[in-house]
Request: fold
Amino acid sequence: MVDGLLNKTLREYSNQELEDLEMSVSQERKSRAFKELERVAEMYVEVYGFENGLNEMGEELCKKIAPHQMHPDGWDGLLRHLIKISG
Reply:
């Protein structure tokens, strides 16, 4: 599947070229994920208003998403991390 998108087959790439390709793909995926996050945040602000939009998004992230599938320590682990990075 990937071979059709590249100028040569994967076997023809050097290890360094493969590492560079992997890094580029990773950076692009992170960029797309962030853009999607921004889009969702804007939608929450539109739906819940400027004062409550991100609060509602954060609450749903912590209480409804993190405990079930996205964070190894559940919502309280995510909350601890948010407090830690908030300074």
About this structure: The mean pLDDT is 86. Residues 62 and 75 are 5 Å apart (CA to CA). The chain has three helices and no strands. The helical segments are 15-48, 53-70, 74-86.
